[in-house]
Amino acid sequence: MVENFWANAAWSVIPTILLGLTFWYVLRSIIRADRTERKVYAKIEAEERARLGLDAPGLDTPAT
User: Fold this and answer.
1) Alpha-carbon distance 60 to 57, whole Å?
2) What pLDDT is attached to residue 11?
3) Residue 38 near residue 45 (C-beta atoms within 8 A)
4) C-alpha–C-alpha distance, residues 24 and 19, integer Å
5) Helix ranges, the chain (H)
6) For 36, left (φ over 0), alpha (ψ -120 to 50), or beta?
7) Region of 56 on the Ramachandran plot (φ > 0 left; ψ -120 to 50 alpha; else beta)
8) What's the rounded Cα separation, in Å, for the pair 24 and 55?
9) How many degrees, rounded to 5, is the angle at CA 26 between CA 8 and CA 45?
């Protein structure tokens, strides 16, 4: 019985660890994709504003 203790303990914990790692990886991927998308969108918006001769949006004025 004692010889199976560590094997049983490992088989009990491994699925939880794998599920946690999968969840972490998916969230990490979503957050990185969002960050990249925002960066690309800001670059495109800055290029369009420069092309049209508009000023950059002010950070001191409230959005309406």
Assistant:
1) 9
2) 92
3) no
4) 9
5) 5-52
6) alpha
7) beta
8) 40
9) 170
Q: Which of 21, 24, 3, 1 is nearest to 13 (CA)?
A: 21
Q: Which residue has the tokens 């490992």?
A: 10
* Two tokens, residue 28: 């990490």
Tallying the residues shown for the chain, one arrives at: 64
Distance (Å, whole) CA 46 – CA 51: 9
- Measured over all CA atoms, what is the biggest interatomic distance in the chain, rounded to whole angstroms? 78
Q: Where are the domains of the chain?
A: 2-49
| pLDDT tens-place string over residues 2-42 | 778 988 999 999 999 999 999 999 999 999 999 999 999 99
The answer to whether residue 54 scores a pLDDT higher than 90 is: no
C-beta separation of 55 from 45 below 8 A? no
